[in-house]
Amino acid sequence: MPDFTVSRDVTLVNSKGFHIRPAHLVMKTAAEYKSEVKIIKENHAVDGKSIMDMMTLFAPNGTTLTLQARGPDAQAAVDALAQLVEGGFGLMDE
Length: 94
Known about the structure:
Blueprint: E1 4-11, H1 20-30, E2 36-41, E3 44-47, H2 51-54, E4 64-71, H3 74-86
Antiparallel strand pairs: 1-4, 2-3, 2-4
């Protein structure tokens, strides 16, 4: 199965944006896939499987992030991550 790159823009909808809990959920979800996962804000790309990397993103509510995956299950990884982000990380009541 060939490697390919998939990317998708998403907007943070939860009130507190990207912080430790969403970062942990992204990392946990990304780890389920073989593909390399990047989270990109403007020109700053971080490893979606590294909590330390993701904590360097300052991304409040309304920020657009690009989810990018490269590998055999890239589409599935981006779809799962997009669903997580677009669903507010399950944190819409915070």
